[in-house]
Amino acid sequence: MKFTLALFLMFGFTLQAQKRDVPAVICMNNGDTLKTNIEVLVNLFDDKMIKDISFASKVKLSKASNNISKIEPKEIKLLTITDFYNTNRIFKYDGKKQLHEVIYEGVIKVYVSFNASSNGHGKSIDFYDETGQRIKVGPFSTSTKALKKAVKEIPYLVEIIDNSKLNFYETVVQVLTIYEKEYINKLN
Length: 188
Fold this sequence. Notes:
- Strands 4-3-2-1-5-6-7-8-9 form a nine-stranded antiparallel sheet.
- The model has no long low-confidence stretch (mean pLDDT 84).
- Helices cover 27% and strands 34% of the residues.
- It is built from four helices and nine strands, in the order αβββββββββααα.
- The protein is an alpha+beta fold.
- The protein has helices spanning 2-15, 143-150, 155-163, 168-187, and strands spanning 18-28, 33-42, 59-61, 70-71, 76-82, 88-93, 99-105, 109-117, 120-128.
């Protein structure tokens, strides 16, 4: 009986969400800036890996900073953190209901949105062209196809995408930086 209880308690504790605090700068829509810590969920097996779902709804401040415990996404203009891998990450309010992460903002814009639903968590990567229109790709399509579609006017960039050894976000930044230079040169 004691063994079963101990096993049950141990299992229950491992299923609880693992939380850590990360330093953040939050620029509010009302002009205030908060330098604080926010509470994020981390991976059970790698406590440096922040779960994306931490940014899908309200931002929870650590230990109730400034008498505020949670901030609604619509109140946030910009949220900047340095994650546990020492990577700077920027989040903006998407104008609808949540924060999305800025991967690239230039001629083409790329954002990652994190979704929480009763079916679990998900994320979508959205590309916007020079006119601000969302670049649409078919259902069952990949983010790589959307990136290729965004830069199709410069064929050698598709080859860079296909042969890249970088992770996807690094590839996006590399390719869109080149695209932006080519785009600006074409305008001049």
